[in-house]
C-alpha cells in the first residue's frame, strides 16, 4: 500500500512539474551607441556590469564608429534604442517624418569656455571680435554658446568667429595661440588645463540655467528609440531606462572601478581613465522629468533660431511613459 502511495505521489509531482509553465523568455532589445567620445565610457561600463541584462533584457549591443551611422540605424529600425544620440539629430529626424522618439536625456552639455590665464578676456561679453575654438557652428555646443552669449551678454553670433575642430584640434588651437578662447569638455580641461595654463570664464550648463531660469542643464545626448519600440513595448523601454539609471548610480558610487574598466576595456591610459571617472557625475545623467523636457524644448528653440531645425516642435516626440514606469511615477 505504501509503495502505491509513493508511486501516486511521484506521478502527481511529475504531472505538476511537467505542467508548470516555462520561464518567460527575456525581452530582446537592440541597443546602439557610438564607441567614441563621451558615449564610450558609459557604454563600456553598461556592458561590463550588465545593467540591462539585470533588468531581464536579452541585449544585443550594436557599436557604431560615428554618430551618423547610429542615427541611420535607428531610422531604419536596425536597432531599437540608443543612448548618447545627438538631440539636434533626433529633432531633425522627427521633422523629416522618421519614426523616432525621445524617451530620456542622457548627456548634459558638460563643457566650459576657457582662455589662457593671461588673457584679457574675462567673461563672454569680451568675445566680441575674437576667435573661439569649437565644434562646427551648427553643433549643439556651438549653438548653446551662441545662445548664451547673445541672451546673457549681448554678444551676437556674428560678433565672434567659431574656429571648428574636434577636441584634440581645439587643444592644439589653444596651445598654438590660434584662438583667443575655446569650448572644451570638462574632462579635457582636467587633462590639459594646468599644462596649457588655462582658466575657465564660463560653464555652459550654469550659464544656460541663468538665461532659461530653469534648473535642468542643457543636454547634447539623449535616449532615443524607434516609435514602434517605445509605444508598443513601454515595459521593455522602461527597463532600458531603469538600467541606464542604475548604471549612472553605480558609476557615481564606484569611480575607482570605473577607472579600472576604462583602462582595461577602453584602453585608456591610467591617468586619463581616472580623470574620466572623476567626471562621471557631470557627464552622465538619465532624466526625463518635466524640468528636463522643458530644457529640451528650449534647446529646440535655439536650434531653430540658427536654422538647424526648420519646423515647429512636435510634442509627440516626447514619450514619457517608459521613464515614468522606470521611476515609479
UniProtKB/TrEMBL annotation:
GO cellular component labels: periplasmic space
Record SMART domains: PBPb (SM00062)
Primary subcellular site in the record, as a coarse category: periplasm
Domain Solute-binding protein family 3/N-terminal as annotated: residue spans: 28-254
Subcellular location(s) per record: Periplasm
Membrane-traversing stretches: none
Signal is among the record's keywords: yes
Signal peptide: none
Keywords noted in UniProt: Signal
Gene3D superfamilies in UniProt: Periplasmic binding protein-like II
InterPro entries in the record: Solute-binding_3/MltF_N
Family to which this protein belongs: Belongs to the bacterial solute-binding protein SsuA/TauA family.
This protein's name: NMT1/THI5-like protein
Species annotation: Oxalobacter formigenes OXCC13
Amino acid at each position: 500500500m505504501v509503495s502505491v502511495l509513493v508511486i501516486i505521489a511521484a506521478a502527481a509531482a511529475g504531472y505538476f512539474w511537467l505542467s508548470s509553465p516555462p520561464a518567460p523568455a527575456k525581452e530582446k532589445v537592440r541597443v546602439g551607441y557610438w564607441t567614441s567620445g563621451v558615449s564610450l565610457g558609459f557604454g563600456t561600463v553598461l556592458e561590463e556590469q550588465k545593467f540591462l541584462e539585470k533588468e531581464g533584457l536579452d541585449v544585443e549591443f550594436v557599436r557604431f564608429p560615428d554618430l551618423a551611422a547610429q542615427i541611420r540605424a535607428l531610422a531604419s529600425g536596425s536597432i531599437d534604442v540608443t543612448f548618447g544620440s545627438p538631440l539636434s539629430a533626433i529633432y531633425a529626424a522627427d521633422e523629416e517624418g522618421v519614426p523616432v522618439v525621445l524617451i530620456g536625456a542622457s548627456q548634459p552639455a558638460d563643457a566650459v569656455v576657457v582662455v589662457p590665464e593671461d588673457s584679457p578676456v574675462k567673461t563672454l561679453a569680451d568675445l566680441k571680435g575674437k576667435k573661439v575654438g569649437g565644434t562646427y557652428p551648427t553643433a549643439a555646443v556651438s549653438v548653446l554658446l551662441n545662445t548664451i552669449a547673445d541672451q546673457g551678454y549681448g554678444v551676437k553670433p556674428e560678433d565672434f568667429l567659431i574656429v571648428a575642430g574636434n577636441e584634440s584640434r581645439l587643444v592644439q588651437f589653444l596651445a598654438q595661440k590660434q584662438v583667443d578662447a575655446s569650448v572644451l569638455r570638462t574632462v579635457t580641461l582636467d587633462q590639459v588645463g594646468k599644462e596649457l595654463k588655462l582658466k575657465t570664464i564660463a560653464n555652459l550648463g550654469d550659464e544656460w540655467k541663468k538665461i532659461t531660469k530653469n534648473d535642468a542643464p542643457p543636454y547634447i545626448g539623449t535616449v532615443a528609440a524607434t516609435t514602434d519600440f517605445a509605444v508598443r513595448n513601454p515595459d521593455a523601454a522602461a527597463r532600458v531606462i531603469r538600467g541606464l539609471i542604475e548604471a549612472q548610480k553605480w558609476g557615481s558610487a564606484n569611480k575607482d572601478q570605473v577607472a579600472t574598466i576604462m583602462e582595461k576595456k577602453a584602453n585608456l591610459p591610467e591617468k586619463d581613465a581616472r580623470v574620466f571617472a572623476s567626471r562621471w557625475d557631470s557627464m552622465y545623467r538619465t532624466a526625463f522629468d518635466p524640468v528636463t523636457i522643458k530644457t529640451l524644448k528650449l534647446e529646440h528653440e535655439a536650434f531653430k533660431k540658427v536654422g538647424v531645425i526648420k519646423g515647429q516642435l512636435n510634442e509627440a516626440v516626447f514619450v514619457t511613459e517608459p521613464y515614468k514606469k522606470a521611476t515609479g511615477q
